[in-house]
Specification:
The protein has 20 helices and 23 strands. The chain has 636 residues and is of the alpha/beta class. It has a seven-stranded mixed β-sheet with strand order 12-11-13-14-16-15-21, sandwiched between helices. It has a six-stranded mixed β-sheet with strand order 4-5-3-6-7-8, with helices on both faces.
Length: 636
């Protein structure tokens, strides 16, 4: 349908320039927008700001950062695209969607990279910086012209934009201004209030000078005005009924806020992509509530610092990514052996080794559960949304201190940088850690007086009267004496294992998305939830009996899984880690490697659980998940 500009464009007192009031606006339910540039040109900041504006305007939003593998790739390189994807809609948005509907590109080479990756929808609208057409280097002019002609021949709708020329009217270095000009254009195209956009610019640059804020605001207005005068693009996406106050943030920030809300007071870390921004944000806000962020000299030191802080009374947290988690393994074994509560946040990335530092992957599940030498049971929780990142840290702290265990929060690069609005949390005092126990320890009580049923024992805190004992990483008995006898060592291992069973008995069966039985059950974990559930919706709309199950607790697994899976004709996991392709000539059932969750489910329940996975370094797309579901259904 079409609506008049006056119906939907909220004016804020600025003079309307150029575009007639009767201009027709196309109402749509959703759009996927990308802003891409060379590194350092601010496309990521533009996308983040646009996502925040859309969310504040009432749209559902999910953003995906587009990050090159190199810190500073060569300018105008096909593999060097840096920017942001923003999916906005008239309903709650839970993933980055499929192909882009509209792209703003600062040069044609980064655009080619996205085309080669099949990230653009057929007929996609491309707003392309035109400065390269008249560039002084004839090779650049030729490359631009050839690319432009090829993309136009391929059916894309290209619109050349004089961003460099327009920005030069306001700033000496347009490279540092195009992002705000592009932001203004997008606000005009999608009918967002210019006053709201001004507020966002002021928020984005709040730590900068007033002159810089004014300069960026002028660029924003220039882009907005130019678009209204020169573009025939006008879309309106109706707002979502929010139902209360919302917060817009990314997963790493939500993790950091969860640390504060949980009552933990110590975070020990070592910088590593893509986890570092959580620690950076925490370092800004933690001192205001008495918290400390300790940057250690390496990952091992960060882990042992956090363990020491936890030992003296209050659970601490250490934040890392895959390579750092590998380095922490022996230290985590000490926390398990000493039964010292600890929260570990692992923001997964592509591996192994250095792997793909800026790309998403779910490759750390098995090493998180089984990675330590010896038997070292740990609780593993995987948040699936930005909101879940916040609450998972709170839950992790409570479990760690209730059961005296290591709890790993397994996030990933997709959640780390994605933005999504969610209901503003209402603080609950129950989130906080209790006061440190300094009461008298009963006479003759042992520091590891393991309960025969649950494996739990009272935690001794340094300074408690009667609570002195020797902490050791050696196998020990209930009195904390080194265990030389086989029975004593076995008793300790049994107790530490029983704690997971005790936790599992307190969990609820997971909720099924869709019907309780049917043709196919798709099981996932972590950041894949939105793509899986959207794909299920598409399949169900086509009449297929497909449901989904998303697991938050991965160790221990929640109760009721066998009964749920047995009600479906087929079960398949969808994951962001490697699984062998069954159509490869060497692969059969005797040697096929399954996805990590599929391996866990198959070994635990002895059921035929299939798997479909991708490790392309990109968040899973609902269209590809939907296609995999249909292939699985057609095999039956």
């Amino acid at each position: 349908m079409t609506l008049s500009l006056d119906d939907h464009l909220r004016r804020d007192g600025d003079p309307a320039t150029g575009r007639p009031a009767a201009e027709e606006i196309t109402e749509i339910s959703q759009h996927v927008v990308e802003i891409i540039s060379d590194s350092g040109e601010g496309a990521q900041r533009c996308g983040q700001s646009f996502g925040a504006i859309a969310a504040r305007a009432g749209n559902g939003v999910w953003t995906v950062e587009i990050i090159p593998a190199e810190i500073q790739p060569p300018a105008r390189s096909v593999a060097g695209a840096s920017g942001n994807r923003i999916r906005l809609g008239s309903q709650r948005i839970t993933n980055g969607g499929d192909e882009a509907d509209l792209v703003v590109a600062f040069n044609e080479q980064v655009l080619l990279g996205r085309v080669h990756m099949k990230e653009l929808k057929p007929g996609c609208i491309i707003l392309l910086e035109d400065m390269w057409r008249e560039h002084r280097d004839p090779r650049i002019r030729q490359a631009y012209g050839e690319t432009y002609d090829a993309l136009e021949a391929a059916g894309y709708r290209l619109i050349e934009i004089p961003m460099e020329r327009e920005c030069r009217k306001l700033v000496a270095d347009p490279r540092r201004g195009k992002n705000m000009f592009a932001l203004g254009m997008l606000c005009a195209i999608y009918q967002f209030d210019l006053g709201l956009a001004r507020e966002q610019v002021a928020t984005t640059f709040r730590k900068k000078s007033a002159a810089l804020i004014e300069s960026n605001t002028n660029l924003l207005v220039a882009g907005y005005t130019w678009a209204r005068s020169n573009l025939d693009l006008a879309f309106h996406i109706p707002a979502v009924a929010a139902g209360g106050r919302q917060v817009v943030t990314n997963g790493n920030t939500a993790l950091a806020l969860g640390v504060v809300a949980s009552g933990m007071e110590i975070c020990a870390m070592y910088p590593i992509t893509p986890a570092t921004s959580a620690s950076h944000y925490l370092s800004e806000i933690f001192p205001k509530v008495g918290g400390i962020v300790h940057q250690a000299e390496d990952e091992i030191a960060a882990a042992t610092f956090a363990i020491g802080a936890s030992f003296v009374g209050k659970c601490a947290v250490t934040i890392t990514s895959g390579p750092g988690y590998s380095l922490k393994q022996e230290a985590l074994g000490l926390a398990v052996m000493g039964e010292i509560p600890l929260v570990v946040v692992n923001v997964q990335r592509g591996g192994p080794s250095t792997g793909q530092p800026t790309k998403v992957e779910q490759g750390d599940l098995l090493t998180t559960i089984f990675g330590s030498h010896g038997d070292a049971p740990k609780v593993v929780i995987a948040p699936s949304t930005i909101e879940d990142c916040f609450y998972s840290v709170i839950a992790a702290r409570r479990i760690a201190e209730t059961f005296n265990v290591v709890v790993v929060v397994l996030s990933d690069a997709s959640l780390a940088t994605a933005q999504q609005p969610f209901a503003r949390p209402e603080f609950d005092p129950a989130w906080l850690a209790p006061p440190i126990d300094q009461s008298q320890v009963p006479e003759a009580m042992q520091p590891y007086a393991w309960d025969a049923t649950t494996g739990l024992s009272r935690r001794f805190i340094p300074g408690q009267p009667g609570g002195m004992y020797t902490l050791t990483g050696l196998a020990h008995d209930a009195s904390a004496h080194v265990a030389y006898e086989p029975a004593a060592n076995e008793e300790g291992i049994r107790a530490r294992s029983l704690k997971l069973a005790a936790l599992q008995r307190s969990l609820k069966p997971p909720t099924i998305y869709g019907d309780d039985s049917g043709e196919l059950l798709v099981v996932g974990w972590g950041s894949t939830k939105g793509a899986i559930e959207e794909a299920v919706d598409r399949a169900r709309a086509e009449g297929r009996q497909v449901s989904a199950l998303h697991l938050r607790f991965l160790n221990p697994l929640p109760p009721g899984l066998r009964e749920i899976m047995e009600r479906f004709d087929a079960v398949m996991t969808v994951e962001g880690n490697w699984s062998d392709r069954s159509d490869d000539s060497l692969i059969d059932e005797s040697n096929r490697r399954y996805g990590a969750l599929a391996m866990l489910l198959r070994s635990r329940y002895l059921l035929d659980v299939d798997t479909w996975s991708e490790v392309g370094g990109q968040p899973l797309k609902p269209g590809r998940v939907h296609a995999a579901m249909l292939r699985k259904l057609d095999q039956r």
